[in-house]
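Feature request, filed as a ticket because there's no other form

It would be nice if the structure record came with a short human-readable summary line next to the tokens. Right now we just get the raw output. Example of a typical job, pasted below so the devs can see what we mean:
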Amino acid sequence: MQIQNSIPGVQPTRGPRRDEASGTTRSTAAAAAAELPSSEAAATERQAAPLRAARQREQGLSNHTVAGAQRTLNYLDELQQRLKALQERLARRVADAQSGTDATGADDSLTDSLRAAAETWRARRDSTSGFLDESLRFDADGQARVRFRMRGMSCATLEGGRAETLSFQAGGSRRTMSVVLPEGADAETAVRHLDRTLAPAGVRASLDNAGEPVFSVAENRWAGLQTSLSVAGGGIRYPAGQAQPVRLQRQDEALDPARWGVGEADQARRTLREVSQALERVQRVAESLRRLLASEAAATPQDAAWAGTFAGDLSLMLNGASYETYVAVAPALGGISRSRVVELLSLG
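Raw output as currently delivered:
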């Protein structure tokens, strides 16, 4: 069962890897079927179809991901409530200021709403068990990451230019991670080399929508990386000689309550605008998670019905089957894990 979704970071957790692992076997089976007469090959194709459907149904979100999505959705619902309460009080404050009835300073209810929203946002990581990062991206594995820029790394510095060897160190380790940026390479190639080189330190590199390099690391490793990452170059992008600390610039969080002021009317107006924008983003992510969970739930009855008839269909197909049929269906049988069969049988 393949779940399609638009949530950043959510990917099927079993299907694609299963396909990659069984690619050679499928190719062998296809070659064997190609050697059969056309009528016999067509019959084999029809007989193998139910088993291919079995493999497709095995693809889907893991229980771990589904539980994380539900927990994240519960958190987002709470965050929406806090932001809506703050939005309403801010709107009242702005309206009072426009009508000339605004009192000096922020009232207690507005201050309390601001504090409650800020506390809820600070609890994001624990409340979602790491499934939601600071940019409101849902991570299917529960490994929320911090995204950052690295000073000296831009499309302009990586695009073209002379070859250079960069040597990185991180976390107080004496181990050096070296990468050669080829002469004349484009930014995509350079970032791909950087991604492979920095992976042992838990750092991943990619290009953002603007084509600029962006890096990420697990949230629980960010503080250590920020104070320990250093690099030595060849005098082109970075100085040669002893490694120097790299300045890392963290990407902006989706919400930044520390910047929200309510003491003055102008502050309240700016905060109202930012809170409204943040609320829209939270609502979009929550709606995406609801669609994801609804799709997963809707598939359960289909799996149960299929499990009830699969054993009979399989038995009928294999009774009197030729050797060529077994060759064709073996890869599909190999793709059905025991855990999935047990899970489906338990639904009956």
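Something like this underneath would help us a lot:
The chain has two domains: 1-132+262-348, 152-246.
The mean pLDDT is 79.
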